[in-house]
Amino acid sequence: MQSQHSCVLIVAFWGNDPPMEPLVLESCHSTWLFDTERMRFRRVLKGLDLDSHPASTGWRPYFGLDIDPVSESFVVLLNQEGTRLLRSWRHVEHCTQCGGEATGELSLDELRSAARA
Predict the structure, then answer these.
(1) How far apart are CA 55 and CA 76, in angstroms?
(2) Domain presence at residue 4
């Protein structure tokens, strides 16, 4: 079986805050933005547009991010003890998590808007 590869995007955003280059991970149903300098993240939900703006969570702190390149899984540590966490998988071509059918894509403008919110 061939190894599946996906890319990690880094996109620069400017606004009222100092410039930020978040780490961007694509899962089947969300785009995850990680502000690695401020140790915070947010999810932009794919396929859920509210009044022509993508739906997203607020910025939340995180205490670690573990990305497994073999399984394409990633784990977000929500507390220092590592007892609260979120696990997801990066969406890849022929994705075993969603059967290859990811929810809609977001444009860079939509990601910039979500990062500044």
Answers:
(1) 20
(2) no
HSE-CB for 98 with a 13 A CA cutoff? 17
Query: What is the SS3 assignment for 112?
Result: helix
Please report, as a single letter, which amino acid is at residue 22: P
Domain count along the chain: 1
Q: How do the pLDDT tens digits run along the chain, 117 residues long? A: 344 444 444 444 444 555 678 999 999 889 999 999 999 999 998 876 656 666 889 999 999 999 998 888 999 999 999 999 999 999 888 778 777 655 555 566 666 666 666
- In angstroms, what CA-CA distances link 8 with 5, 28, 50, 83, 91? 10, 14, 26, 26, 11
Q: Which domain holds residue 98?
A: 9-116
List Cα–Cα distances, 103 to 3, 37, 63, 78, 96, in angstroms. Answer: 23, 29, 28, 25, 14
Asked, for residue 90, whether it belongs to a domain, the answer is yes
